[in-house]
Amino acid sequence: MNTNSKEExxxxxxxxxxxNMLKTAGVGGVGVLLGATGLGGLLTITEGKxxxxxxxxxxxxxxxxxxxxTTETQNHVYFVSLDVTTSKKEEVVKLFKDWTIAAALxxxxxxxxxxxxxxxxxxxxTGEAEGLSASNLTITFGVGPSLFVRDNQDRFGLKxxxxxxxxxxxxxxxxxxxxxxxxxxxxxxxxxxxxxVAFHAVxxxxxxxxxxxILRWAQxxxxxxxQADPGQETPRNLFGFKDGTVNPDVKSEKQLNEHVWVxxxxxxxxxxxxxxxxxxxxxxxxxxxxxxxxxxxEKTFGRYRDNGAPLGQKDEFESLNLKQKNDQGxxxxxxxxxxxxxxxxxxxxxxxxxxxYSDGMDAKTGSFDAGLLFLCFQRQPSKQFxxxxxxxxxxxxxNEYISHRGSAIFACLPGVKQGGYLxxxxxx
Length: 428
Ligand code: HEM
Known about the structure:
This protein is of the alpha+beta class. Helices cover about 25% and strands about 20% of the residues. α4 (about 90-105) runs antiparallel to α6 (about 195-210). Strands 1, 2, 5, 6, 7, 8, 9, 10 and 11 form a nine-stranded antiparallel sheet that branches. Strands 3-4 form a two-stranded antiparallel sheet.
């Protein structure tokens, strides 16, 4: 028997065993699956499948920090914002406990519960990820300001725990925000190298939330895939420019502690090891951009389109030379360019993890509704995203080609330790 057919035989056997096991276990669901781990290794049987290259592609769910923040960016994102509908704190806590179990299973490419044991009941897992690899799925959970206080109501007795940094973002000049893509009590960011896997995760988590929370808005996003770019160059945005060149080094604990992870003393201790997420749904007027000369495009960003180097310089990753001038005495990197303005004096750094989106046609204008789902993580929005965006909103040449249509802020919870649950530090 060659390796492939051996693997197939094992998988086939595993499927049969799993069905039998689930039949024995009864209707079950998440609780049963977990409870059943003592019954002769159900978890090994339901182990996530490998991909076509034999890799399991599993990013560990448990740890000091949640996945999906410093994780190498996956091909796709499925982002959702939710509103909590229950008024009972214990139900919110139960939801986070159920989500913890489900997210741990999903991250390993396993179903959240029974796929087929009782034909008289809806299956516990919706089934569309059956047979797919975990695809490096990460699921990142966050809580918004309105979970703490809404309409002046301390909804769940958490008011005292609301961090000063977790407040609605100020209105920036040129904001064109729409209710349909704004705010939320909770968020889930599911990233995976397969969109069906990411969708499956979100769908099942929302299903588990029935009666406790509902969808408020949702947005998918994509990047060039790893298959299309095995060299893993910096991805290009829909304006054709390399996007993501300058970012804190995710391998440097020092930089992450300085710019990304909430530290002891920053605010309430429950958020230590978490991070603030600012999300902006930014429409990009690609038709207008496509009628703009290359020179103008490059001056807008302050970088060359071809290799991503700062104007007047050679290499994509060279540090910016903001003093260099051309023969006409103008700065090579223009004063109103996106690069110069977002860089500022270099002290406000955010971890950008953006994805492009394309949502068909903008019915109001007949143009593409396409752009950037801008996701960025940081330790203190008041000292990072907000001052950067204040500069951009007032002066950025890029504003001629974009419009901020959605916005939200969330505190992404610290990571979960084995045996613990998401939000444990907040709810206890
Ligand atoms: C559709 C909207 C946007 C597009 C197309 C865009 C694109 C880019 C591009 C091409 C670069 C240069 C390459 C790089 O370093 O990645 C860049 C840099 C950057 N952008 Fe944006 N961006 C957008 C919105 C924003 C927003 C809303 C913020 C934050 C408020 C932001 C913050 C930054 C920062 C911090 C840098 C790095 C600056 C540095 O060199 O230190 N961008 N962006």
